[in-house]
Amino acid sequence: MIRLRSIVFNTLFYANLILRMIILAPYYFVVPRKRAYRIPKNWAKSSTWLMEKIVGTTFEIEGLENIPDGGYILSPKHQSFWDTFALLPYLNDPVYILKRELMWIPLFGWYAAKQKMIPVNRGARGKVMAGVMSQTKDEMRNGRQLIIYPEGTRRPPGADPVYKYGIARLYRDLDVPVVPVVMHPGLFWPRRTTLRFPGHFRVRILPPIMPGMDPDAFFDKLLADMETASDELLIETVRNNPDLPVPASAETRLKALGAGDLVHKRR
């Protein structure tokens, strides 16, 4: 049943994405940028609705009161395609720094360009990166929210953290608060598989780290705050979803946290 529901969901998820981009393109590219943002935000809502109704996966968000006004850096855990879009409806005017190759994708790249997403060549140095930083500062001055995944790429739930120091440089140079976000959607929408699993999980928005700290101290605090909260949520999520399959990375972490009984009960 899970496999069938996953097939139905995946089919409708991508059909919903492609058809919306095609049908709504005339409106999207004519109206002002911020008004056009309603289209991807509504798509995000419809996608989480499809996942709830077809797969049986639900979520709740804690800590919305921790989101400051104006510009800030949102620093989420990155485990799944889910966390690249599901938070959009809760943010005012987010902007991403993304691989320049994504901008070359028909329709998607055009939609991203309309929202002034910031493309970057990951192998670039010097003047190119200075230009990226200049563009980022311009967008932040307009009160936008920069979404940056501190680990850089998707990581399986419970995996050892590999945070990139680049977020500390952004924190220093942009001089805005950083809002950490932890969650475990990777347990329900795992990477490298088409399976989707039912259950319920929480997204936890932590108190912002205000500007002005030494970058090294900030980096240590960000890692400590996020990993402590992530461990708490991992235990909670696995305990509250007894039928959920747990990947090896999460099993190892649960055992290290003294919660190995949650794994043994499933066998």
From TrEMBL:
Pathway: Lipid metabolism. It comes from the Bacteria. It holds the Pfam family Acyltransferase. Its EC number is 2.3.1.51. Residues 72-186 form the Phospholipid/glycerol acyltransferase domain. The keyword Membrane applies. GO terms for molecular function: 1-acylglycerol-3-phosphate O-acyltransferase activity. Keywords: Acyltransferase, Membrane, Transferase, Transmembrane, Transmembrane helix. It is an enzyme of class 2 (transferase). The chain crosses the membrane at residues 12-31. This is 1-acyl-sn-glycerol-3-phosphate acyltransferase.
